[in-house]
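Hi there, hope your week has been kind to you so far. Do you reckon you could talk me through the fold, stretch by stretch? Thanks so much in advance, here it is.
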Amino acid sequence: MDALPYVDTLFKEYLLFRGFTNTLEIFNKDLANDPGCGFQAERITELIFRKLVPGLDCQQLVEFLEFLNMGLYSRLDSRYESLVSTVEADLLRLFLVTAHSAKRPDKIAEFFKLYGPQILSNSSSSSSSSRSGPEGCTDWREWFLLPYLQHPERE
């Protein structure tokens, strides 16, 4: 990962050498919006906690968690599997709490419409070894009540 900026520089030089200035411009824009943030923890947390969760974009959040699973978590030792699954579940629950606090039941409904069946099927089979997005999460049954509770913080 430390060599990534060096490789980016080499690639930029190559694009300039070949005269692909439009491609270079698009590459620079893509680098600024790098979904993996070069796997820098500070940039990843900033993306999650300042953009994805507050922006209430559940699809982008889940896609980003799946991206991290494929690019980062899959390389971790298996002893971290339950920790990763817990962190992912907590981030998704944070999304739901944020949507509820913002009085956006439409976002909660969208989340459960898109990922509800996937979450339910995987929470009922605790032997699932998948860790991507909402798939690796367990103990979700109570969260399906969220759209129907007036004051969930009291429950």
